[in-house]
């Protein structure tokens, strides 16, 4: 009897070791996108000149006297579902090839779920093949499970590509993608600051430690947002920008919407465009970013992602609070909730910056542009 117990114990130990070893091996396996990246054709030579890159700033210049075209994509959720990820990538590529933008901005939740290191590299390769510069933020689903590469590691992957303008930001503040992008217009040595983009990390869910340290109310909800030291960084950097370049309009980009998105809509404000089909999953803890940008006076617009069934814009105290157009087919969205395909929201938003620094924006859906598309593989 004793020998049987020993044998059973040995067998159990061996099984545990084999399972653990299998999990380790599985975690190291590549999990690529099923998409022919080598077949992607470039959109042509870019007119973007990268002037300077630091840990938390990128300066670029484009020729003066013309509009600058920016496309935004958000919540692509490039995960292990290769059919839906391929549909998402197909639309990303053909929309960029059709529009030929100067710059692409990503709104977060770009490459998600486990085993995503290879997919993050593939996304960088896609932009290299297209020959387009790109910036943006990471969302709450990057690095949110034990099989995912960490958020800092993903930023290391992204920033290793020539056309990536994302920066990790200063080590002195919280987050992994806090930086400023200055867009100048001009030719030769002459340049004028046309518009500034501020990118903020909004993390994932608030930790218990953060809640206790900041006296976060119990009813504030689970989602995190911009932290106080990020706001102090913004205030200091914005003052330096103004001192060096003078006044210029600015745009803020983050993944999780500011609390003012929710309070403004709940107050009955009229939507300027788009639809509000989803609950507004903003942080219930207001750390003061909106007040800071309002006080500075340069930021006239804020763009976010996160909520896959929202594409609206609303005005709050003279500042546009807008969602980017959701872009992914792999996670929840209209395609999973019984909407007719003509009403699916997946697509992109364009931002057209005029020579005086002002801008126009408009959302586009893939169904409107390309007709009813890939219903069988996108559903």
Describe the structure.
The protein is of the alpha/beta class. It folds into 2 domains: 30 residues; 346 residues, Metallo-dependent phosphatases (Purple Acid Phosphatase, chain A, domain 2, 4-Layer Sandwich), CATH 3.60.21.10. It is built from 10 helices and 13 strands. The protein has an 8-stranded mixed sheet, covered by helices on one side. Helix 3 packs parallel to helix 4 and helix 6 packs parallel to helix 8. It is globular and about 85 Å long. The C terminus is likely disordered.
Shape: globular
CATH H-level superfamily of the largest domain: Metallo-dependent phosphatases
Which structural category fits the helices and strands?
A: alpha/beta
The CATH class of the largest domain: Alpha Beta
List keywords for this structure.
single chain; 379 residues; alpha/beta; Purple Acid Phosphatase, chain A, domain 2; 2 domains; 8-stranded mixed β-sheet; 5-stranded mixed β-sheet; 10 helices; 13 strands; 31% helix; disordered C terminus
Question: How is the secondary structure organized here?
Answer:
Layout: H1 2-28, E1 49-53, E2 57-62, E3 68-73, H2 82-99, E4 103-106, H3 117-130, E5 133-136, H4 151-159, E6 179-185, E7 192-199, H5 208-213, H6 228-245, E8 250-253, H7 259-266, H8 289-296, E9 299-304, E10 313-316, E11 319-323, E12 347-353, E13 359-365, H9 366-370, H10 375-378
Q: Briefly, what is this?
A:
With 379 residues, the chain is of the alpha/beta class.
């Amino acid at each position: 009897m004793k020998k049987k117990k020993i044998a059973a114990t040995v067998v159990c130990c061996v099984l545990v070791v084999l399972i653990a070893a299998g999990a380790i091996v599985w975690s190291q396996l590549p999990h690529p996108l099923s998409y022919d990246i080598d077949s992607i054709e470039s959109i042509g030579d870019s007119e973007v000149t990268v002037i300077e890159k630091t840990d938390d700033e990128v300066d670029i210049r484009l020729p003066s006297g013309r509009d600058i075209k920016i496309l935004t994509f958000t919540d692509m959720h490039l995960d292990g579902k290769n059919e839906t990820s391929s549909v998402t990538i197909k639309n990303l590529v053909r929309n960029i090839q059709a529009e030929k933008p100067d710059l692409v901005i990503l709104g977060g939740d770009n490459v998600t779920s486990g085993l995503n290191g290879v997919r993050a590299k593939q996304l960088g390769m896609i932009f290299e093949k297209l020959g387009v510069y790109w910036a943006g933020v990471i969302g709450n689903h990057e690095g949110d499970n034990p099989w995912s590469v960490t958020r800092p590691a993903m930023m290391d992957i992204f920033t290793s590509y020539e056309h990536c303008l994302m920066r990790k930001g200063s080590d002195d503040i919280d987050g992994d993608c806090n930086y400023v992008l200055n867009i100048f217009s001009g030719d030769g040595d002459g340049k004028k600051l046309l518009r500034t983009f501020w990118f903020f990390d909004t993390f994932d869910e608030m930790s218990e430690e953060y809640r206790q340290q900041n006296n976060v109310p119990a009813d504030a909800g689970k989602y995190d947002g911009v932290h106080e030291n990020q706001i102090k960084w913004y205030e200091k950097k914005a003052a330096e920008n103004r001192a060096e370049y003078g006044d210029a309009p600015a745009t803020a980009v983050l993944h999780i919407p500011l609390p003012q998105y929710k309070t403004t809509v709940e107050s009955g404000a009229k939507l300027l465009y788009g639809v509000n089909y989803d609950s507004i999953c903003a942080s219930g803890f207001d750390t003061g970013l909106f007040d800071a940008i309002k006080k500075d006076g340069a930021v006239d617009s804020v763009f976010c992602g996160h909520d896959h069934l929202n594409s609206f814009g609303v005005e709050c105290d003279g500042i546009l609070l807008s969602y980017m157009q959701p872009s992914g087919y792999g996670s929840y969205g209209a395609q999973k909730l019984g909407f007719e395909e003509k009403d699916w929201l997946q697509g992109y938003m364009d931002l057209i910056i005029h020579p005086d620094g002002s801008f126009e924006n408009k959302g586009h859906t893939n169904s409107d542009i390309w007709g009813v598309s890939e219903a069988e593989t996108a559903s």
